[in-house]
Amino acid sequence: MTMTPQTQITTPPAVLATDLDGTFIPLDDQPHNRDALGELARVLRERRLQLVFVTGRHFASVTQAIEQYQLPRPQWIICDVGTSLYAADTDASFHPVTAYARHLQQRVGEITVDVLREQLSAITGLRLQEPEKQGPFKLSYYADANQLDPLVAQIQASLDSSAAPYNVIASVDPFNNDGLIDLLPAGVSKAHGLSFWAGQQGLDEQAILFAGDSGNDLAALTAGYRSILVRNAADAVRQQVRTVHQQQGWENRLYTAQQTATSGVLEGVRHYLESQRAEV
């Protein structure tokens, strides 16, 4: 999908693509988020907005969250930090989109995650995440949060030495302060998965509204979509997103919500829908 050079988007959004943890899922200590979730589901239904989950969670964890938090059922799931794509079936199930798996396989060639894991085994301080959190195109580790920067530097040096076609994404779990490190095919991110999906659907950036809060949302928040930053977004992410939008000269593509998580998503969706109605 190619971004258009125009600075302002004038058509109403047709899709809400959203991160889950810290964004769409209600926070435990914020009861108003639960009320906002019901209202958000109503708005999506009445305005006929497609719902796409774009998350770092693995697929089983996403389906568990849908049930646990009684989330609206999405039409699509982009999970594993952009390395897996699932489509909803007519029943309550989902199926993987094999065209996306073929696309990613072409990007990595013979250097699979198994090869990569062996290559990085000598780096002290990396702890493999659970098997269910790994994927055919995603290698994930835990690390001490205060060691993230030096560990990322060591990983990057190893990737550079072997020309391995992978990038490193590091973040801190907002719930337990664990350091998280994901290795993904080069150029692949939540934004890449969303772009591939949009291209398959014949949509451009004007149709998509993206909501997020953390470092692994950064690529999507700065890809040219209209975006919502919830109040609990990390300060560093907020500043980076604002800087990119200003540098690109994008108008009305970033809304910084005054409320947290689900409430902030609802606030942002209403902002874009109401501003569009006012322009019409």
Description of the molecule:
With 280 residues, the protein is an alpha/beta fold. It has 2 domains: 15-101 and 188-279, HAD superfamily/HAD-like (Rossmann fold, 3-Layer(aba) Sandwich); 109-185, Hypothetical Protein Ta0175, Chain: A, domain 2. The protein is 41% helix and 19% strand. The chain has 10 helices and 12 strands. It has helices spanning 20-24, 31-47, 59-68, 98-108, 113-119, 148-162, 190-201, 218-221, 235-248, 261-279, and strands at 15-18, 50-54, 76-79, 84-88, 94-96, 127-128, 139-143, 166-172, 179-185, 208-212, 226-229, 254-256. The strands form 2 sheets. It has an 8-stranded mixed sheet with strand order 5-4-3-2-1-10-11-12, with helices on both faces. A 4-stranded antiparallel sheet has the order 6-7-9-8. It starts with 14 loop residues before the first strand and ends with a helix. Mean pLDDT is 93; it is low at 1-5.
In short:
With about 280 residues, the chain is α/β, with parallel strands linked by helices. It is built from 10 helices and 12 strands.
CATH architecture of the largest domain: 3-Layer(aba) Sandwich
Give the helix/strand class: alpha/beta
Number of helices: 10
Which percent bin holds the helix content?
40-55%
Q: Give the strand order of the largest sheet, numbering strands 1, 2, ... along the chain.
A: 5-4-3-2-1-10-11-12
Count the domains: 2
The CATH homologous superfamily of the largest domain corresponds to HAD superfamily/HAD-like
Largest sheet: 8 strands, mixed
| Fold-level CATH name of the largest domain | Rossmann fold
Secondary-structure element order, N to C: EHHEHEEEHHEEHEEHEHEHEH
Q: What is the average of the pLDDT values?
A: 93
